[in-house]
Design brief:
This protein has about 120 residues and is mostly helical. It has helices at about 10-30, 35-65, 85, 90-95, 100-105. Component of the large ribosomal subunit.
């Protein structure tokens, strides 16, 4: 997909013009306009959706940049995963050991023996 950098104001302007065109086409539909205008309605609807998609994507991208590295993030910016995966301990929490367990690991580490042939 081609990425074209367009400012949000320009996109909103384009959206307004396309919506205006859609209204004109709807009026033409009711008043019994030409078939060429009626077939254009679908194309206009798709172009509105395209513009809105780009606006929403840029908005979400900007939010992701803003919240990157912050302690709390909005729910829709967090990874979806599954319910169980979200509740699981993270790597750091999983690796933590109590003082007692650290001491046990130190004192009773795995002994390695080799039989001399």
């Amino acid at each position: 997909m081609v990425r074209v950098c367009v400012c949000v104001a320009e996109l909103q302007c384009r959206q307004a013009s396309v919506v205006q065109l859609q209204e004109e086409l709807r009026v033409a539909k009711v008043t019994g306009g030409a078939a060429s205008k009626l077939s254009k309605i679908r194309v206009v609807r798709k172009s509105i959706a395209r513009v809105l998609t780009v606006i929403n994507q840029t908005q979400k991208e900007n939010l992701r940049k803003f919240y990157k590295g912050k302690k709390y993030k909005p729910l829709d910016l967090r990874p979806k995963k599954t319910r169980a995966l979200r509740r699981r301990l993270n790597k750091h929490e999983e690796s933590l050991r109590t003082k007692k367990q650290q001491r046990k690991d130190l004192l009773y580490s795995i002994r390695k023996f080799a039989v001399k042939a």
